[in-house]
Every structure is written in structure tokens, then in C-alpha cells.
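Deviation from plan, reported transparently: 6-O-phosphono-beta-D-glucopyranose complex.
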Amino acid sequence: MNKSIFPGNFLWGGATAANQLEGAYNEDGKGLSISDLLLGGDVDTPRTITTEIEKGKFYPSHEAIDHYHRYKEDVALFAEMGFKVYRFSIAWSRIYPTGLENEPNEEGLRFYDNLIAELKKYNIEPMITISHYESPVELTRKFNGWESRKMIDHYVKFATTLLDRYKDDVKYWLTFNEINILSRDVGVGTYLGGGMYPDDIDDFLNTKNIDNSQQRFQALHHQFVASAKVVNYARSLNKDLHMGCMIAYRMIYPLTSHPKDVKFAQEMTNVSNFYCGDVQVKGYYPYFAKKFWQDRNIKIKFEDGDEDILKSGTVDYYTFSYYQSSTVTATDETAEKQVGNFFNGVKNPYLEASEWGWEIDPLGLRTALNQIYERYELPLMVVENGLGAVDELVERSGEKMVDDDYRIDYLQSHIQAMKEAIEEGVNLVGYTSWGPIDLVSAGTGQMHKRYGYIYVDKHDDGSGDLSRYKKKSFYWYKDVISTNGEDLENN
Ligand code: BG6
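Because the crystal trials were delayed, the predicted structure below was used instead.
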């Protein structure tokens, strides 16, 4: 076999978030998180948020795929695929049920002690996302989440508890999932990323589309300070801990070569990607921030010392999610809209889309890798990527499985793009595809939108016996890992 293009210690694996797979939403002392109040939606219907748990309604996170009770079986399957790393988040409200306690909930921590021990048993490197769309709802009720500076202390308390406990077992940490979700005016993103209701809760609950950019950008400032404080704390414990940022990378194209479209695409790239990336990597706001605030009448409140904290608490590596690219125009009002995760733009005439309208663009990943590496020259990791698709469980020779060639095609072309970027000199150190086991979709709340190598018998109405089945892609990814990315063929 040829020598692999991927470095020998390349971290292959998968990524999940507690609220999308654990279930057990009220067990062993866990409090309610913001995600526990989200109902399901679908491709055309946005998810709805309730302020309390309402009887008779179905909340997808409450059982999810019951990983809380089945983590041993799930980790064994990850190990069978040969995972080198597993990225997961820690449910904040399992550790601090309301966020306000002074002492952590031991029972909640014990679950993660066990999960980490199980990963270690198979030599799988744990990678922790400290906050992934699941802050305790009490912090939203008390002071509207990250709008308030008080969140910084609560978050730091939570993060330092984790760092103290796991500093010897966990090398890789991410402070916030997709921190840049708050740089975009998408309603549910404000709730998930910031734990905030914009100004008027009733309007927000009804329309989910009220925006308050002052609030979003101030909340982001609080998150930047919180992240930097935690990075500094981690360094004081052990300089070898790897502290990273996580950006939902928006690879943006202009619809046409009209200079106005090109300029607009550049401006969107700045605010969507570099606003957050620069603060977390360079330790200061980018040059365009002041004018951006002025134009929108945003006034960011800095406290004494904030600038120094940001400067000292920069990250060691840059991670990002990449599912699709996005195309924008400043000249064509009639261009057809593209539906997408948290990025809306217009349809790109050259790209095919998934069943959920997410445009498939492996070359966009290649360009993104170059763009990011040129700007930051830090080790990079793709920590989310994958195809959400409808899978059909079939029976073959007495065994249930899924022929998910479409998923293999998607992943294969994206891994190929990573390979080419590495060949060109980009320092890419790992890849954790999203949802290695089917889980609840963050955007729509569906189970029906599946990403996994492992099928879970669970459906949008809550039915299913939760059995796990290996899909065709399970065996394919196992080969990819065992050949260190050399064999990408779908045999
Ligand atoms: C990312 C999130 O935005 O995309 C994940 O970090 C999410 O939580 C993933 O699940 C895929 O999005 P969706 O809406 O298909 O679940």
C-alpha cells in the first residue's frame, strides 16, 4: 500500500452532543436544559420552544437514543470502527442542574467518568465540547442566558469543574460549539447558542424570527471572555491540554462576478467566520468590527481587563463544522432561496442538494481549509461533517442493515478534499464526522434525518425499540480508518 497522505497520528472519529443522544433528561439529578424544551419540526416547519414541559407534547431530547444507558454498546461499536477520537459534549445541567449551584452533581459527573473510562479501554481519545446548545434553562429564565455577564462566572465554574476532574484523561477540549451561531440572525440559533429569548418572548415563541443584534453581539462578547478565561485556567493546570475553538464555517460564494456580489460575499465571510475566529485565535476583534458595530448601532460593553483576557486566552487549535457551502447575492432579489442549517443564502446553480436542501460541495471544504489555514496557521480539525439523509432498514441474509451508498459518496468526496489540502501543506490533524450513530437533529428535531454509520430504531413520533444496526457505511469507514484514509473506495 502507498504511504498515506494523512499523518500517522491523524485523529479519525465521530462527534455528538449530549442533548441529541443521551436522553435520560431528568435522571440522576439532571436539571432541564434549553434543548429539553424544544419540540420537533421538519424541513418546512421550524422547531417550537415551550417555556415549560407541556403534557402530551413530544420532546425529542428526553429519550433521544438513550445513549445514557447504552453508552457501553455504542462505544464498543465506535471501537469496532477503529475510532481514534470521540468528540462529545457534557450536559451542563447534569453537572449543575440549574447552573446556579455551588457544588456539582456527583451522579452527573459519574456518567462522564464512566464514559471516559470506557473510551480509554479502547484507546479512544476523548474530546470534550464544554458547551453545545444545552445550557441550564434556569439561567435563561433568571437572566436570559448569555445576554447577561453573569453567565461568564457560571460557565467558568462548570468548565473548571470539568477541567479539574478530567485534566489527566482528556487532552482535547472545545470551549463552545459553533460559537459563531450568534453572529447570524437566526431565531433558534439565538436560543441554542445564547440560551436567550430576544426582546419579546411571546413574539419570539410565535414567530421565532425576532432579531436583536445588540443582544447577540454582547452575548458573544461574554462568550469570548468566558472562553478565554477557561483557556487560561486550563493552561495553569497543564500546558499540554489542547484548547480549541469551534466555528460553523460558512464557505461563501458570490452568485455572480458582479463586484457588488463579490464584495457582499467578502463582508459575509468576515462577519460569519472571521469575527469569532479572529477573537479566539488572535485575541482581539478584527479590524472591521468597529464599523460593523457602528453601522448597526451595536455598543459592546467591555469591562476593565476584558482585552487582556482575550489576548491571553487564545486557542491552540482551530476546529470547525462543514456540511455545505452558501451562495449570496447583493444584486439579484429574485434569486431562489437556499434552505439550510443555520445559513440561508440563494441556490447555487452548480450544486446538488440533500433531501433537506443542504448543498453538497466537497470542493468548498477544500477551499475552506485553505482559507482558514492561510489566515491562522494553526492545526485544524474538521469536527463535524456528514450527510443527513433518509435511511431504509432492509433485511439481508437474516441481518438488518442500510445500503447508504449516498452517505459513503458524500463522506468519500469530503475526505478526498481533506487529503488534497493536506498534500498541499494544510496542517489538518483530525476528522470527526457528525453523528456516527443516528441521533436527534438539532435543526429539525427529527430522527428521520440520519447521519450515522449505525442505525438506531427510533422514529420521529418516539416509537422504536432503540436497537442499533450497522449500515454499509460502518464497514466503509472502518476501512478508511484502518488504511489511514488511503482506501476510500466503496467496495
Ligand atoms: C451543527 C450542530 O450545526 O450541525 C449539530 O453543531 C447539528 O448540533 C449538526 O446536529 C447537523 O445539523 P442538523 O440540523 O442536521 O442536526
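Residues 17, 20, 177-178, 248, 321, 341, 384, 388, 434, 441-444, 449 surround 6-O-phosphono-beta-D-glucopyranose (CB under 6 Å). We consider this an acceptable substitute for the interim report.
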